[in-house]
Write a structure and sequence with these properties.
This protein is mainly alpha-helical. It has helices at about 5-10, 10-30, 35-45, 50-60, 90-100, 110-120, 120-130, 160-165, and strands at about 65, 70, 150, 155. It has two domains: about 1-80, no CATH class; about 85-174, no CATH class. Helix 2 (about 10-30) crosses helix 7, helix 3 crosses helix 4 and helix 5 (about 90-100) crosses helix 6. The longest helix is centred in the first third of the chain and has 19 residues, at about 10-30.
Length: about 170
């Protein structure tokens, strides 16, 4: 979710209410008993426009790789709330900005820290979590998820985004 600064400053209660509504929707989507309903909604032409069977399998973490490998209830199923999926980690913001620099959408000298500090409102998320009575154990203690390894083996270390960029074999050609 993104809101303009002017809106957040002018309507702090509405901002908090919207954030809490999104968080409650994420918790609803995460519950196993709601996944079929969510998949029916999402698979419709209005949203994903994909077969229900494909969407529900992904939501449940059921994968048929087509090579004889079948996985049920994979840890890689779609997440909405679990594993702090909704938290606005600054390390995620940094990865997105790094990718935008990789593809030439942002200059390589972008002050990512200043930009992230300007737009990331984890304080609003934390206030919404507190208001909703979210358990402290479900609230991240850090603004970073730390070093992450992607499906292709590439590593993103928020302390060294340049190493991630340098490790990429496919890059924007200017």
């Amino acid at each position: 979710m993104a809101l303009r600064t002017e809106f957040v400053e002018k309507y702090p209660k509405a901002t908090l209410a919207l954030t809490m509504a999104v968080m409650e929707a994420q918790m609803f989507c995460e519950k196993p008993e709601n996944k079929e309903e969510v998949a029916r909604i999402c698979s419709s032409r209005r949203w994903i426009n994909a077969p229900f069977a494909d969407v529900i399998d992904r939501m449940k973490g059921d994968f048929d790789y087509g090579n004889g490998k079948v996985v049920k209830d994979s840890e890689f199923q779609m997440r909405y709330w679990k594993d702090q999926a909704s938290y606005p980690f600054k390390s995620h913001d940094l990865w997105f900005l790094t990718e935008n620099m990789r593809w030439g959408y942002l200059p390589a000298n972008t002050d990512t820290k200043a930009l992230i500090d300007k737009v990331n409102r984890e304080d609003v998320w934390r206030e919404a979590a507190k208001t909703l009575g979210i358990a402290q154990s479900d609230i991240p203690q850090s603004t970073s998820r730390g070093v992450e390894t992607f499906f292709d083996g590439k590593v993103f270390d928020p302390e060294n985004p340049k190493a991630y960029l340098d490790s990429q074999t496919i890059k924007y050609l200017s």
